[in-house]
Structure to design on (223 residues):
């Protein structure tokens, strides 16, 4: 069945790089997504990658996709305290609805 | 300009009541969704409409009834509210139903007393 797995917690120091990892099961997803949710807030579409790409860079964010291993990662360079949030990996599995991981809580200490 | 807006933002009500949540998008998208986020932050699809037609109806109690009067609006009506319905309900929209990026509203925090 469809499943998206990610580690639940990551703690980093301000200025370090953060890497959040995700594995998914359905290789028919056209896009793979990262969403950010700050405390008490909604879901913000952070970035996404088309399934025929290996890498996408957007300012401090780098997304890496390994289709063979069904592994997606999000790297945040120069992590700031404002990056503290829950980060959700999601795929559509060839369908329409998003299938989310359980979310990784990123904690950034100064 | 808010792209996907939901009302109300907070909803506190008694068990057994009936309530509605409204959603509107001004992005010109064809497809809209309702997701539920539980207390452990897990997000799960409930319904999806494409051009006013229901295309996804997950295993949701029939006390939940979505309605799409036009492609810019998707409302959610809940009858006979139960304690387990307490959650955050998110509306989202996408250009079409082909897996394109979905944009979310700020959520409606429903608390059942």
């Amino acid at each position: 069945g469809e499943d998206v797995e990610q580690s639940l917690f990551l703690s980093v120091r301000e200025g370090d790089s953060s890497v959040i990892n995700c594995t998914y099961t359905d290789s028919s997803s056209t896009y793979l997504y990262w969403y950010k949710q700050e405390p008490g807030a909604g879901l913000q579409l952070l970035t996404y990658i088309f399934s025929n790409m290996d890498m996408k860079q957007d300012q401090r964010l780098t997304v890496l996709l390994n289709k063979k291993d069904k592994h997606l990662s999000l790297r945040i360079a120069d992590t700031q305290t404002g990056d503290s949030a829950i980060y959700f990996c999601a795929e559509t599995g060839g369908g329409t609805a998003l299938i989310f991981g359980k979310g990784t809580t990123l904690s950034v200490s100064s | 300009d808010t792209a996907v807006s939901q009302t109300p933002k907070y909803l506190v009500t008694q068990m057994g009541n009936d309530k509605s949540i409204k959603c509107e998008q001004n992005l010109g998208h064809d497809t809209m969704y309702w997701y539920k986020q539980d207390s452990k932050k897990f997000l799960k699809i409930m319904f999806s409409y494409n051009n006013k037609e229901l295309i996804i109806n997950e295993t949701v109690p029939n006390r939940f009834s979505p309605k799409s009067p036009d492609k810019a609006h998707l409302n959610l009506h809940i009858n006979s509210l139960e304690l387990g319905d307490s959650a955050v309900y998110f509306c989202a929209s996408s250009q079409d139903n082909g897996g394109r990026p979905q944009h979310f509203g700020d959520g409606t925090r429903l608390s059942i007393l």
